[in-house]
Design brief:
single chain, alpha/beta, Rossmann fold, elongated
Length: about 650
C-alpha cells in the first residue's frame, strides 16, 4: 500500500489543479468528521492523495485552516508525506508556511506552480540552488498543462521525499533537534487549544521573523529580467474593478448576467428532463397496466428520481460559472466589494454568492456556502439561504398575485403584478438578512466583522478543474441528498395514493358527483393525505385555509411548485390545467361560512407570506442535512421557518379579513 500524500499550501496556489492532475476522476468529496469543512481525497496509483484546505500559516484561525493544522500535528511519520505547493510568482510569501513546516521536520517535496506565468513575467528561479539550500526535492510545475508532473510522479513512486533543513529557531534558538520540534509543535497546539488571538506575540514574531529571513534567503535564488512589476495587469484591473462606483456597477452587471445565464441556460435542459421523466412515467404506467405497483413506479420512484435529476442543470451551470469566476480571481473581488454592506447583518463578502444563488435555487446555494471559510458565517448562511425567493416559488406567486392584482398599469409602464412580484423578492432578501443579523446577535460567539483575505492575481480559468469540481458537487447531490429526496417522495406518494376507505366507498363517492371532470380529486380527498388535510384544518382555518388548501400545503413540502398541480387535481382540472383555468376556478370557489370568495385578498396575502417563509423543499432539507452532518439544525430550520410562516400568515389574514 502506498503513502498518504498531503497537499499543503496557501490559498490560490493551484493545489486543486495538482490534485486533479494526479487523481483525475478517481476522487471523492465529503466532510471531515464533526465539521462542515470539505474533504477531498483521491488516488494516484497505490497512493492516497489528500487535498487539505488552504493555509496562510500554522497560526491561522479559520475552521478549515485548523483542520489542516491538526492533520499536520497528527502527522504519521511512517506513512504520511507532504507535497508543498508554492506560488512561483510570490515565492517569499508562500515560503513562510513552508519554513514553518520545515521546522516541524516533516518529509516533503516542494512543487513550485505557475511556470508559465514566471516565463511571461521574466522571473527566474534557480531550482538547483533552492533545492540544495532546503535539502528536499523541488519541482517546477505548470498546473495548467501538466508540465513537470512526470518528475513529481517519479518522486511519489520512489518515495524520494526528504526532511528539509530547519529554517529558524525564533525565540527557541538555543533549543536543538527534536526538543525544538516538540516545543514548537506544542506551542502551535496550545495556540489552538486556548484560542489565542492572532495578535499573540509568539505568532506575530514567528511570521515576521520568517518573512525577513526569507527575503535574504531568496536574493540569489529569484531574479527578474525586467523592472516591470510582476502584478501590473492585476493592479490595472483592480483600479477599475475595485473602484467604489465603477467596480460596484460592473459587479452588479456580472451578477445580473450570471443569474440570467443560470435561468436561461438551465431552462431548456430542465424542460427536457421534465418531459423525459413525464414520458417515462407514462410509459411505465401503460406497460404495467395500472394498479398500485404501476403508480409506485411511475408516480413514486420515477417522479422521485426526476425530482432529483431536474436540479442537475442548475447545480452544474451555477458551479461552472462560479468556478470560472473563482479561477480568474474575480470571485475574491466580489466578496471584497460586497463585504461592506453585508457587515451590518453579521455576514461578510463571502456570503454574497450563496445568497444570490438562492434566487435560482436553494440547493446549489447551500452547496456554494461551503466556500465560506469562517465556520459560524458558513453555518448562518446555510440556515438563511432558503428565505431567498427561489424558482420553485414563482408558480405559486404567479397564481396568487394574478388572483388579487389587476392587469392595470400606472404611469403607463408599471404593472401592479410586476411590482407585487418584486415585493416578494425583496421580502425574501430582507428576511434572509434580518435572520442572519438576529442569529449573529443571539450567538455571542458568532463570526466577527473582521474579515481578511488575500486577493489573488487574475488568471485564465482552468476549465478542466472547473468541470471536475462541478462533476464532484453534482455527484454529491445526486448520490447523497438524492437518496433522502427519493425516500421522502415515495412516502408522499403513498400518503396521496392510499386511503383508509374501501375502493367501493370511493367509487360510490365518485358516482355521486357526475359533474367531476376528473375522479382524481375524490381519490385525493379520501386518501391519507386528504385526511391529514382535514385533520389540520382546525389549525389552518385561522389563516383562511380549508382542508383543500391543507392538502396543497402538505404536498408542497415535497416541493413548493407542487402547489399548482395539487390545486388543479383538487378542483378536478387535471394536472395539465392551464394557469388561466386554475385562476378562474379559484375565483369561483366560495367560503360558505363567511359567504365570501375562498381566495379573497386576505387568504391570498396569507398564502403568499406562508410560501415566502416556510421551508417547503425536502431537497433543500436533505442537502442542509448533508452539509451539516446531521438532522438537528435542518429540523430547527424547518420548524423555525414554518413557525414564522404560520405567524406571518395568521397576522396577515386576521388584519385583512
Amino acid at each position: 500500500m502506498g503513502n498518504k500524500i498531503l497537499l499543503l499550501g496557501n490559498p490560490n496556489v493551484g493545489k486543486s489543479s495538482l490534485f486533479n492532475l494526479l487523481t483525475g476522476t478517481r476522487q471523492k468529496t465529503g466532510n471531515y468528521d464533526g465539521v462542515t469543512v470539505e474533504k477531498k481525497e483521491g488516488r494516484f496509483e497505490t497512493h492516497r492523495i489528500i487535498d487539505l484546505p488552504g493555509l496562510s500559516s500554522v497560526w491561522s484561525e479559520g475552521l478549515d485552516e485548523r483542520v489542516s493544522i491538526q492533520r499536520v500535528l497528527n502527522f504519521d511519520e511512517a506513512s504520511d508525506r507532504i507535497i508543498f505547493v508554492a506560488d512561483g510568482t510570490n515565492l517569499q510569501h508562500t515560503l513562510v508556511l513552508f519554513s514553518q513546516l520545515a521546522d516541524l521536520q516533516l518529509p516533503m517535496v516542494m512543487a513550485i506552480n505557475f511556470k508559465d506565468e514566471l516565463l511571461s513575467k521574466g522571473i527566474s528561479i534557480d531550482i538547483q540552488q533552492l533545492q540544495n539550500k532546503i535539502a528536499c526535492p523541488v519541482v517546477l510545475l505548470n498546473g495548467r498543462t501538466g508540465e513537470g508532473l512526470d518528475q513529481l510522479k517519479h518522486i511519489i513512486r520512489n518515495n524520494e521525499f526528504a526532511t528539509p533543513n530547519a529554517f529558524i529557531r525564533t525565540k527557541y534558538e538555543a533549543v536543538q533537534g527534536d526538543v525544538f520540534v516538540n516545543e514548537y509543535a506544542g506551542n502551535i497546539q496550545k495556540y489552538y487549544d486556548s484560542d489565542i488571538a492572532l495578535a499573540d506575540p509568539i505568532a506575530l514574531e514567528d511570521i515576521e521573523t520568517r518573512d525577513r529571513q526569507l527575503k535574504n534567503f531568496l536574493t540569489e535564488i529569484v531574479s527578474k529580467d525586467n523592472n516591470e512589476p510582476a502584478n501590473l495587469l492585476t493592479d490595472r484591473l483592480d483600479k477599475v474593478l475595485l473602484h467604489p462606483i465603477y467596480g460596484s456597477i460592473i459587479f452588479l452587471a456580472i451578477l445580473f448576467l450570471l443569474f440570467q445565464a443560470l435561468f436561461n441556460l438551465s431552462a431548456y435542459p430542465m424542460d427536457l428532463i421534465d418531459a423525459l421523466f413525464g414520458n417515462l412515467s407514462a410509459w411505465a404506467n401503460d406497460a404495467l397496466g395500472g394498479g398500485w405497483l404501476s403508480s409506485l413506479l411511475s408516480d413514486g420512484v420515477i417522479a422521485g428520481i426526476g425530482g432529483i435529476v431536474i436540479f442537475i442543470p442548475q447545480i452544474a451551470i451555477l458551479f461552472i460559472l462560479m468556478g470560472a469566476l473563482e479561477s480568474t480571481g474575480y470571485m475574491a473581488r466580489i466578496a471584497y466589494l460586497s463585504d461592506r454592506w453585508l457587515k451590518g447583518f453579521g455576514l461578510s463578502g463571502s456570503s454574497v454568492i450563496p445568497l444570490m444563488s438562492g434566487i435560482a435555487c436553494a440547493i446549489p446555494a447551500v452547496m456554494a456556502a461551503k466556500r465560506i471559510r469562517d465556520e459560524k458565517e458558513r453555518f448562518v448562511a446555510m440556515l438563511v439561504v432558503p428565505f431567498m425567493t427561489c424558482n420553485a416559488r414563482l408558480p405559486v406567486y404567479t397564481i396568487l398575485i394574478a388572483m388579487i392584482f389587476p392587469e392595470d398599469h400606472f404611469f403607463y409602464i408599471f404593472n401592479f403584478k410586476g411590482l407585487a412580484l418584486l415585493a416578494m423578492y425583496l421580502i425574501g432578501t430582507f428576511t434572509a438578512l434580518f435572520a442572519a443579523w438576529v442569529m449573529t446577535k443571539l450567538n455571542k460567539s458568532a463570526a466577527t466583522n473582521l474579515w481578511i483575505m488575500e486577493l489573488p492575481r487574475y488568471r485564465w480559468p482552468h476549465w478542466k478543474n472547473v468541470f471536475l469540481d462541478t462533476l464532484n458537487k453534482t455527484k454529491i447531490f445526486v448520490f447523497s441528498a438524492g437518496k433522502i429526496i427519493l425516500i421522502l417522495s415515495i412516502i408522499l406518494w403513498a400518503l396521496a395514493s392510499f386511503s383508509p376507505q374501501s375502493e367501493a366507498f370511493i367509487e360510490k363517492q365518485i358516482a355521486s358527483q357526475p359533474e367531476l371532470a376528473d375522479a382524481s380529486s375524490v381519490r385525493l380527498e379520501y386518501s391519507y393525505a386528504g385526511y391529514l388535510g382535514k385533520f389540520i384544518e382546525p389549525a389552518i382555518a385561522p389563516l383562511g385555509y380549508d382542508w383543500k388548501i391543507g392538502i396543497a400545503l402538505l404536498s408542497s413540502f415535497a416541493a413548493r411548485e407542487v402547489f399548482v398541480g395539487t390545486i388543479a387535481i383538487i378542483y378536478s382540472l387535471g394536472e395539465e390545467a392551464e394557469e388561466q383555468t386554475i385562476i378562474e376556478k379559484l375565483r369561483s370557489e366560495w367560503n360558505t361560512e363567511t359567504n365570501q370568495p375562498r381566495y379573497n385578498l386576505a387568504t391570498c396575502i396569507s398564502l403568499l407570506l406562508f410560501y415566502a417563509f416556510a421551508m417547503q423543499c425536502i431537497s433543500t432539507l436533505a442537502i442542509v442535512r448533508r452539509e451539516m452532518g446531521g438532522w438537528k439544525w435542518p429540523m430547527i430550520q424547518f420548524v423555525g421557518m414554518t413557525a414564522l410562516a404560520y405567524i406571518s400568515a395568521l397576522v396577515a389574514y386576521q388584519l385583512l379579513s
